[in-house]
Amino acid sequence: MAKRPALPQAPSNASYSDDAHGPRTLIERAYTQLRDDIVEGRLAPGEKLRVEHLRQRYEVGAGTLREALNRLVSDALVEAEGQRGFRVTPITVQDLDDLTDLRVRIEIEALRQSIRHAHDSWREDLQAIYGQMSAIEQPIVPAMAQKWEAMNTQFHEVLVANCGSEWTLRLLRILNRHSERYRRYAIGLGQGRRNVHSEHRGIFEAAMSGNELRAALELEAHIRATPELLKAAAREGVDVFRSATPGKGALADV
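Above: the chain sequence. Below: its structure as tokens.
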């Protein structure tokens, strides 16, 4: 019997008030909080990250904070500026295009491989996460945005879980985290130009039926929809990374 892939878990909201959990746990907590604040736009692209200020915000020591920041440098979410400290990695349309092209190449091939190795437990997991996600994305309301984002991540991870390459899965987690930064701005535009549930349904149905070619086409269109939305707004004169507030606005069709 094929091994059942474990469903990815959404990040825990547990908090830690002292050093009882050990230094590695404190670093992990600081890393996770910083990462989420960057991805969700609470720390703005290009913002200077001053250790003395962040120590109070995250209630950790300077050494712990620097270790967390160095991990985020490895994730390309933070830039080290030599002796001048750290800064949130900027976001640009050019970077988004590069990120999107790379994600399309890797994720589509991973999906093809996952479908080729499909088994009953994978289909059951895919059915389960699709059903949970569908229940809250018709439409997505602001209060459910964070939960939906976690489920959206799980849906994409389950889709490629059978690809047979741990390195591919690791790379896709990094690329998807960066994609999420841009998705937040697309959501903030609130222009109602997409029906994300319809996009997900197309991918899901093709994957479940084993239609590899259709699934690949549906997934590519889905991945490219966010950059196309942002570029369309830019052509209309919207400064998409300044005037849009991450995570705000009409969520129903994005």
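The longest strand covers residues 78-80.
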